[in-house]
Structure formats: C-alpha cells, structure tokens
Amino acid sequence: MNAQPLRELFEAGISEDDRRWLADLVPGSGSATPGQLRAAFTGLGRRAGRELLGPQAAALAAQGITGAARWDRATLGRVALLIAWLPTQPQDRQVDAVRELYLRGDYREQVAVLASLACLPDPARFVPLAAEASRTNVTDVFAAIACENAFPALHLPDLNFNQLVLKALFVGLDTHRIVGLPARVTARLHRMVGDFADERRAAGRSVPADIAYIQSLNEGSER
Fold first, then answer.
1. What was the pLDDT predicted at 59?
2. Claim to verify: residue 100 and residue 131 sit in the same structural domain
3. Same domain for 155 and 88
4. Residues 67 and 160 in one domain
5. How many CB atoms lie within 10 A of CB 36?
6. How many domains are contained in the chain?
7. CB atoms inside a 10 Å sphere around CB 176
8. Residue 138 sits in the same domain as residue 150
9. Are residues 13 and 97 in the same domain?
10. Domain range for residue 199?
C-alpha cells in the first residue's frame, strides 16, 4: 500500500512545527533507523493526540482500510509511518523490526502496529505476531487484531482464527466486528462454539448472544 496518502491525511491535521519534527525524525528518504521510528511512535502520542478521525475515516475506508473509524490521529500517523518505513529496511530484518516495535510499544502503539498488518508488504509473514497478539490479556490490544481488522480472516490458519473467535466470545466482544467471519465458519468452529455454550450452561452462566449468530452462519467444509 502507498503510504503517501495516509501521511498527507495525517499531516493535514497537525501544526507546521509538528510536521517539521516528524520530517526531521523520520526523513522521507527512508534513512530513519529503527530507533528513530520508535521515538516517532512514542512522540506521536503527545503531538497528534487521541481525537478520533471522524469524516477522515471515510477516505481510508475508500482505500480498503478497515477499522479507521475507531482510529485516533496518533494511530493514523503511526500506521502511515510504519507502512512507509518498512520497505526501506533489509527484507530479512523486516519481520523482526515490526515485532520489536510491537513488543517495545505501549498498548496504544501496539494497537497501531496490529492495525497496519494487513497493509504491510507480504502480510502473511506476520501471522506469528498476529497469533501472539490474539493471546494478549489487554482487551484493547486484542480488539485491535480481532475487530475491524482484515488480517485474521485473510491470513490466520483455522486453529488460530477459531481460537480468536472463542476468545472474542469469552471477553464479550461483538463477533459481528470480526471482519470476514462468515466466510471462515467451519464445522469445527461450529462444534467449538457449541461446546463453549454447553460449558457455560453447565456452569450456570449466561450464554453470549453472539453464539446464536455464529451458529446461524453456514458452515464450510471441515478443514
């Protein structure tokens, strides 16, 4: 994905001083180091703020970017930077660079990394990171990979995808927010969801309404 429109959209909403700060820290020539990128990720939280994008999200949706309606300005800036910066790095170091950025970031920075995965070059190579993120106990981080994110349905193997769906049920996230879920429902996922519902009933606990939604979806072949 071309990061230039994202960066232009982001820079249109910040001050001239902040644009100079960003240009100095992360040069457009691609000469920025991983350390400079991490510094920019951190600094954007202070300089860009947490205002949601609002109407700007429609421009991102037109480019096929899911979930932008829930992004704040710092997330937009971080996604734009990562998409632009990653191709400038040696190919054999790119996966480790993204994982390092994720591990070193606070939860808001981790959200931005996960939001960018489907837009990065050769996204399937980031499956291990997405699978790792889907096991987090930080709800906002889990929601960033599970909800309004095209990556899981496009790239996660069935085992990881099914576990993500079950965890979404367990933590109370609306599974309608899982992009591409109807196309990924299999007989195995139906059984797993049914077993989860049975366990809840046996324990005298309520059954999430979303279970009925998943069970109403046509199951695919066993995989």
1. 80
2. no
3. no
4. no
5. 16
6. 2
7. 12
8. yes
9. yes
10. 122-223
Q: How far apart are the first and last CA of the chain?
A: 31
Place of tokens 């790239």: 155
- Is the pLDDT at 193 greater than 90, yes or no? yes
Q: Are residues 196 and 96 in the same domain?
A: no
Q: Name the pTM for this structure.
A: 0.90
> Looking at the structure, do residues 9 and 101 belong to the same domain, yes or no?
yes
Q: Kindly report, residue by residue over 53-84, the tens digit of the pLDDT.
A: 877 888 888 877 888 888 988 998 899 889 88
| Residue 185 shares a structural domain with residue 127 | yes
Digit-coded pLDDT (tens) for 144-191: 999 999 999 999 999 999 999 999 999 999 999 999 999 999 999 999
Label each residue of the chain as H, E or C. CCCHHHHHHHHCCCCHHHHHHHHHHCCCCCCCCHHHHHHHHHHHHHHCCCCECCCHHHHHHCCCCCCHHHCEHHHHHHHHHHHHHHHHCCHHHHHHHHHHHHHHCCHHHHHHHHHHHHHCCCHHHHHHHHHHHCCCCCHHHHHHHHCCCCHHHHHCCHHHHHHHHHHHHHHCCCHHHCCCHHHHCEHHHHHHHHHHHHHHHHCCCCCCCHHHHHHHCCCECCC
Tell which of 120, 135, 159 closes a domain.
120
Q: How far apart are CA 52 and CA 47, in angstroms?
A: 14
